[in-house]
From TrEMBL:
Any single GO CC term annotated in Swiss-Prot or TrEMBL for this entry: mitochondrion
PANTHER family in alphabetical order: CASPASE RECRUITMENT DOMAIN-CONTAINING PROTEIN 19
Membrane-crossing residue ranges in chain numbering: 131-149
Name this polypeptide is given: CARD domain-containing protein
Annotated coiled-coil segments of the chain: none
CDD domains attached to this UniProt entry: CARD_BinCARD_like (cd13785)
Record keywords, A-Z: Membrane, Transmembrane, Transmembrane helix
Organism, scientific name: Amphiprion ocellaris (Clown anemonefish)
InterPro entries in UniProt: CARD19, CARD_BinCARD, DEATH-like_dom_sf
Domain of life: Eukaryota
C-alpha cells in the first residue's frame, strides 16, 4: 500500500476486517452513524441514517451496507468515517490493516534512514577536511612545546619557535599570544 492510496481504497481494504471485528458492536455502529449524520448531513442524510440504525437488521449487515454506501459517496465520506472511527474507537482505528501497514512502512523507512545516516556519520567525523585536523594538531603540539620549555627561568629556547608560529596562518588572537610569550621570554 502506498502513501498515495485514497481513503476509498483504504476503506475497501479495511471493510472485511471491520465487518468481522467483534468490537464493532451495535452501539459503536450507531455512534458512527450519528456522528456522520449530525456533523456531515451531506454524507449521511436523516433517512439514510435511520436505515443504518434499524435494529431489526443485524449489526454486521448494517455495517457492511454503511461501508458500501460511504465507498460509493467518495473520498470525503470515507475520510469522515475514518475520523469518526478514530474519535469513537481509537483501538479499532489503530488496529486496521491499512494503519498497521502504514505504520510498518513508516518504521521501515525510518530504520533505513537511520541506517544510511549512521553509515555516513561513521565515515565522516567532520566535514572540515584534513587541513583542519592538521592545523588543530599543530596548534596543540605548539602549546605542548611551549608549556614544556616555558617552565624554565626564561623562554629563550622557544623564542624562535614562537615568532615562527606567529607568522604562520593562525588567527590574530593566537598570533598575539605567541608574540606575547616570546616578548616575555626576551625580557627575563
Amino acid at each position: 500500500m502506498a502513501d498515495t492510496d485514497g481513503y476509498q481504497e483504504q476503506l475497501e481494504n479495511d471493510a472485511q476486517f471491520l465487518c468481522s471485528d467483534q468490537r464493532m458492536d451495535t452501539e459503536l455502529v450507531d455512534r458512527l452513524v450519528l456522528q456522520l449524520n449530525r456533523i456531515y448531513p451531506q454524507i449521511l442524510s436523516d433517512k439514510e441514517a435511520h436505515g443504518f440504525r434499524n435494529l431489526s437488521v443485524p449489526t454486521k449487515v448494517r455495517l457492511a451496507e454503511l461501508l458500501n454506501h460511504l465507498h460509493r459517496r467518495g473520498e470525503e465520506a470515507c475520510l469522515e468515517f475514518y475520523r469518526a472511527l478514530h474519535i469513537h474507537a481509537e483501538d479499532i482505528y489503530f488496529s486496521l490493516p491499512t494503519r498497521i501497514r502504514r505504520r510498518e512502512m513508516a518504521d521501515l523507512q525510518q530504520t533505513n534512514d537511520v541506517a544510511v545516516k549512521s553509515n555516513h556519520e561513521r565515515f565522516v567525523l567532520n566535514d572540515r577536511g584534513p587541513m583542519f585536523f592538521l592545523s588543530c594538531f599543530s596548534f596543540v603540539v605548539g602549546i605542548a612545546i611551549l608549556c614544556y620549555y616555558g617552565e624554565g627561568e626564561t623562554l629563550r629556547c622557544t623564542g624562535g619557535f614562537l615568532h615562527c608560529s606567529a607568522a604562520a596562518r593562525f588567527s590574530k588572537d593566537a598570533k598575539d599570544v605567541f608574540v606575547s610569550y616570546a616578548e616575555v621570554g626576551k625580557q627575563k
